[in-house]
Amino acid sequence: LFPVSNLCGKCRPKDTDLLQPSLNFMYCSLHQTTPCSQQRAVAVLLSNVSLLELLQKVLECTWMWSFPSEPAYLSSEDALLSSGWLLTASLLIYQHRYNTEVHQTLSLDLRQILNAVIFRNKKPVLLLVSIMQFLRAIMRQNFSSLLVTVVQNTAQGAMQPQPSSLEDAALHPLTVQQVFSLVISLQNLLVHLYLQKDLLLSQAVVACLETLLEYLFVKNQDVALHVASQPWHRFLLLTLLNGNQKSILQPEILRLMTLFLKYQSSSIISQKEIGQILQEVAEANLLELPETTSRALHLFLCQV
Length: 304
Description:
Strand content: under 5%
Low-confidence stretches: none
Mean pLDDT: 89
Structural class: mainly alpha
Number of strands: 2
Radius of gyration: 20 Å
Largest sheet: 2 strands, parallel
Helix content: 55-70%
Shape: globular
């Protein structure tokens, strides 16, 4: 890790052929090791100021580089950005877990992060999921971290004014408008991915929605319950159910239903859907269910 991280610190964001596998190597090193070694690995990476400065530049390229419309495969630039966001999200999580000393702080614009998901702007889906992974990590820390400082700039570059309502103040640094825009975009993205049978990425979108509602519930329960009970969720659920001809025992559907049950959205999920799932569970061979489905089913039944 030490020589690879030093090598990265000497690169420029345009050195994609070298940087992308190097960032992947560091990402895998963090995730595929013992907890003791993981803590040491985090310390090595977070003590490398040049590496963190390079990460800052790579992440900023997300807003500067142009993207072709829906490419059939990831370009080297797309892959580098995806790796950069995933590595940053992991460092954010593990720095918090081990309370590791940080030698260089990253500064990221929350408005641009949210807009990347809300408006997409032809960004590849995998890059969006990587950004969502970071967004989940920073939300779980209430946007407060020694590693990452979140700012929210206006289009003119001036700092955002003070919150204009009590709800905005409670959700700071998010605003109610941003929350609803993000929820609608996640719903649309979920339908698009699910109908395309891109189940792995669908799970990432559901996870982002779960984390967002958890954040809202801690900050302002009324806002969280209001967001969870929006009628559009009912349409989303029916679309996903109708788009799957085999079984409703799918991880994404189960996790969505669990989410609506958790926040008591009786207008979104009915006794009929609950009964359908219980009936399928009674008829299914539970030993043959995939692990992700088994976990989602366990959480759903516990919530019921």
